[in-house]
Write a structure and sequence with these properties.
The protein has 207 residues and is of the alpha+beta class. The protein has two domains: 75 residues, Glutaredoxin (3-Layer(aba) Sandwich), CATH 3.40.30; 113 residues, Glutathione S-transferase Yfyf (Class Pi), Chain A, domain 2 (Up-down Bundle). Helix content is 54%, strand content 8%. Strands 2-1-3-4 form a four-stranded mixed sheet, covered by helices on one side. α4 runs parallel beside α6. The protein is globular and about 45 Å long. It starts with a strand and ends in a 6-residue tail after the last helix. The relative contact order is 0.13. Its EC number is 2.5.1.18.
């Protein structure tokens, strides 16, 4: 059985939980991170020297980095419908997953920590405004892509890319500020409501 190490409120752990639900993979989840067992404990650092969640153990195999984990799970557990083997289709999924992990995530970090986590180190008004501006710029890119597909991020079918993208969209809606209106993103989020794992691991009240 797959074992997932990381608290269920973590956005990156939720990627893995959602992927397991979509792929119908039995799993056990252990809470690690703030408020639970420390990720700086020697036994955790032996699995991930970065001291970050999630970590997955699949038998003797250990893997960290959330996007790498969900790619592995889809490849290992017959998830071709989520992560296609055909090179062009897979490249499109990978493109949006990598964009989410780099460009999109880097834009919202300061604003999210300041407005939601209330971090004392992230209360500079100019820093928050700059982060929100960059975040909106990337959400505009996302809105344009969804206008083009009329469905999901990588095309007409739900794919692995929609898991990290939707979690970032959920964080966008869950951060208190005056949001620019992006109709295609709003429609996309409603479309995802048809998936039970979306309600369980994404739109579940956690930003």
């Amino acid at each position: 059985m797959v074992k997932i190490l990381g608290k269920a409120t973590s956005i990156n752990v939720r990627k893995v939980l959602w992927a397991c639900a979509e792929l119908q993979i039995p799993f056990e989840q252990e809470d690690w991170g703030d408020g639970f067992r420390s990720t700086q404990a020697p036994e955790f650092l032996a699995l991930n020297p970065n001291g970050l969640v999630p970590v997955v153990r699949d038998g003797d195999f250990v893997l960290w980095e959330s996007n790498s984990i969900i790619r592995y799970l889809a490849s290992r557990y017959h998830g071709g419908w989520l992560y296609p083997a055909e090179p062009l289709a897979r490249a499109r999924v990978d493109q949006w997953m990598d964009w989410q992990a780099t460009d999109l995530n880097r834009s919202w970090g300061y604003a999210f920590l300041g407005l939601v986590r209330r971090s004392p180190a992230h209360q500079d008004a100019a820093g928050i405004a700059d982060s929100l501006e960059r975040w909106a710029k990337h959400m505009r890119v996302l809105n344009g892509q969804l206008e083009g597909t009329g469905a999901f991020i990588a095309g007409s079918q739900f794919s692995l890319a929609d898991i990290p993208i939707a979690l970032s969209v959920n964080r966008w809606f869950g951060t208190p500020f005056e949001h620019p209106h992006f109709p295609a993103i709003a429609e996309y989020f409603e479309r995802l409501n048809e998936r039970s794992a979306f309600s369980r691991y994404c739109r579940n009240g956690q930003p």
